[in-house]
Specification:
By secondary structure, the chain is mainly beta. About 10% of the residues lie in helices and about 35% in strands. Belongs to the neurexin family.
Length: about 650
């Protein structure tokens, strides 16, 4: 595995490697282990040069970095940092920028990882006499050897090649000593490095050995190093004729353990391919999980492979190379998943139901602790999310009530009514993804909803603590032939509609198992019949579709109970155990809202009617005149005469106006 990080520096003017008054460069970076490093991209540890300094093409030949030229123009130094032991870059210190016109711009690129098949090319030596042989090593004037090893043995020969008198050998001489010996005709030469800790700790260690006409060098884990100059006069050519033996040769103490990534003069030897046809040697190595097992997440088990490792996600609710991908399923109305812990008669089961069971031992079905985890999203309530039944009347249920609030119900015996926990009073049937993690140990129950802190609850002293004869786990709906709490009968219609994902009950992943059955039951192109699946405890009814709905982000963050003005403080409230005896909260709240709306509508209608009636009576009349009232003397006069006798004709005309409503 190769890791590198890009670093680009632009300075005007700036000093990278010019020393400050205290003797350190003005600029450096900090990597893993909080260590300062004074080399830059394109260079290496201990080399205080930039890439242009190594290539000898810097702007000013007097300096080893373009940015050290102290020019007014912008200059750039860039390159890759490839020593993974020092990565990633965590801090960069830039100095000498307080001078007039002094500017700096520094960029650190992303950390990139690349795999190398040669890095995993390995062989395991299982007996002291086992070895691999290759063609004669051609290293007359220069020999450059590197490899990794892992062993629990106190000694062993890594490799050896012989000549008439010349030879070359690398060996673990004792639990703390590595030896590099050779003879080019001037007599045997041996270099050793001593480790502070034992090397037979079954951990990976790296050995690098180099020999040329000037000197010989041996290095262990880039920590321990030994070197020796070649004699001024004498032979310099290493003359070999036998085969190269890796592991043991000539009666030497053979190596027991694993060797990988063996490179000799830049060529990687194919240990794996040769080991396939060699007795006593196996291709690949055991023990990758010691170094890399941490990458198997969410309960995934690391499995040794010859060329690496594998994360086994079988017993988890996740999938993918590292057990990090949620496995989710979409439930339509009437869909259920059933997981049988105990065998049961299949008579009466639906024809399109796939009922498969297996037998568990008694200690697996009498529980004093449970671990439950899953995510859900739905817009419908009420609904059963999970229901675990038993051969007795014990059960565990996680449900959404009529108002969408989440409730957990335990019935372990000893109480007149089940023990109910109202996890949250908010409406969680809002189409958003929510997650619940719950654990019980005896009487102690801990529940965490979404990203909020876990909350602890305690079963009453009168309650039993053992979940007896656990029989069946249901998701989405309950299809039970035995006793079932009447509270849940109305939760079954139409059942849960929405998404469930990463469902886990102790070591069981029922939804993931059901989706595997679904994929087996789905015929491929050109195939109409599929043989029945092997015996399995899981079954399903209805239409179940695998979906990545569980990985959907929360688009509307839920309101914290501490800041929610509508959140009920249930520290003093008493919630009845039997839900049948009370009208659900959602019904009361909905009735009050509907009644208020009806009252407003009726009041508005009445006000409108009153206004219309008053308007009509105010203008009601068929004919208005200004006729003179008849008296005894003028009773015989007509109405016309009376009108003519009026003094004000305008008044008369105005009074003769008529209104018709």
């Amino acid at each position: 595995m190769v890791r590198n990080q890009m670093m680009t520096a632009l300075f005007k003017p700036m000093f990278l490697f010019v020393l400050s008054p205290d003797g350190t460069p003005y600029t450096w970076w900090v990597g893993r282990g909080s260590e300062k490093h004074f080399y830059w991209g394109g260079s290496g540890p201990g080399i205080q040069k930039c890439a242009c300094g190594i290539d000898r093409n810097c702007t000013d030949p007097k300096y080893d970095c373009n940015c050290d030229a102290d020019l007014r123009q912008w200059r750039e130094d860039a390159g890759l940092l490839i020593y993974k032991e020092h990565l990633p870059v965590s801090q960069v210190a830039v100095g000498d920028t307080n001078r007039p016109s002094s500017e700096a711009k520094l960029t650190v690129g992303p950390l990139r990882c690349q795999g190398d098949n040669n890095y995993w090319n390995a062989a395991s030596f299982t007996t002291p006499s086992s070895y691999l042989h290759f063609a004669t090593f051609q290293g007359e004037t220069s020999a450059d050897i590197s490899f990794y090893f892992k062993t629990s043995a106190p000694y062993g020969v890594f490799l050896e090649n012989l000549g008439n008198t010349d030879f070359i050998r690398l060996e673990l001489k004792s639990p703390k000593v590595i030896s590099f010996s050779f003879d080019v005709g001037n007599g045997p030469v041996e270099l050793t490095v001593h480790s502070d800790t034992p090397l037979n700790d079954d951990q990976w260690h790296r050995v690098m050995a180099e020999r040329n006409v000037k000197q010989a060098v041996l290095q262990l884990d880039q920590t321990y190093r030994a070197s020796q100059l070649a004699p001024a006069q004498g032979h310099t050519r290493l003359e070999l004729f036998s085969q190269l033996y890796v592991g043991a040769a000539g009666g030497q103490r053979g190596f027991l353990g694993c060797i990988r990534a063996l490179r000799m003069n830049g060529i990687t030897l194919d240990l794996e391919e040769r080991a396939k046809v060699t007795p006593g040697v196996k291709p690949g190595c055991q023990g990758h999980c010691t170094s890399f097992g941490m990458y198997c997440r969410n309960g995934g088990k690391c499995v040794e492979k010859y060329n690496g490792y594998l994360c086994d996600c079988t017993d988890t609710a996740y999938d993918g190379p590292f057990c990090t991908r949620d496995v989710g399923g979409f439930f339509e109305a009437g869909t259920l998943v059933k997981y049988n812990f105990l065998p049961e008669a299949v008579a009466g089961a639906s024809r399109d139901s796939k009922i498969l069971t297996h037998q568990l031992t008694p200690h697996e079905v009498n529980l004093t602790k449970e671990e439950v985890a899953f995510s859900f999203s739905t817009s419908n309530a009420p609904a059963i999310l999970m229901y675990v039944s038993s051969k007795t009347q014990d059960y565990l249920a996680v449900v959404l009530r009529q108002n969408g609030s989440l409730q957990v119900r335990y019935n372990l015996g000893g109480l007149k009514e089940p023990f109910s926990i109202d996890v949250d009073q908010r409406n969680l049937a809002n189409g958003q993804p929510h997650s619940i993690n719950m654990s019980r140990v005896d009487r102690s129950i801990t529940i965490q909803l979404d990203h909020y802190p876990p909350v602890s609850y305690t079963l009453p002293d009168a309650s039993d603590t053992q979940f007896n004869l656990v029989k069946t786990l249901f998701l989405g709906k309950v299809y039970e032939t035995g006793h079932i709490d009447p509270v849940f009968e109305r939760y079954n219609t139409p059942g849960f509609v929405g998404c469930l994902s990463r469902v886990q009950f102790n070591s069981v992943a029922p939804l993931k198992s059901a989706l595997r059955i679904v994929s087996q039951d789905t015929p491929t192109a050109g195939q109409t019949d599929r043989p029945p699946a092997a015996a399995s405890p899981v079954s399903y009814q209805g239409k179940l579709l695998e979906s990545n709905c569980g990985s959907s982000p929360l688009t509307i963050p839920p309101m914290s109970a501490a800041t929610d003005p509508w959140h009920l403080d249930n520290t003093d409230a008493e919630y009845p155990f039997n839900e049948e005896r009370v009208i659900p909260d959602g019904v009361n709240r909905d009735s009050a809202i509907i009644g208020g709306i009806i009252a407003v509508v009726i009041f508005t209608i009445l006000c409108t009617l009153v206004f219309l009636i008053r308007y009509m009576f105010r203008h009601k009349g068929t004919y208005h005149t200004n006729e003179a009232k008849s008296t005894g003397e003028s009773a015989t006069e007509s109405a016309d005469t009376a009108i003519i006798g009026t003094d004000n004709p305008e008044t008369i005309d105005e009074s003769k106006k008529e209104w018709f409503i």
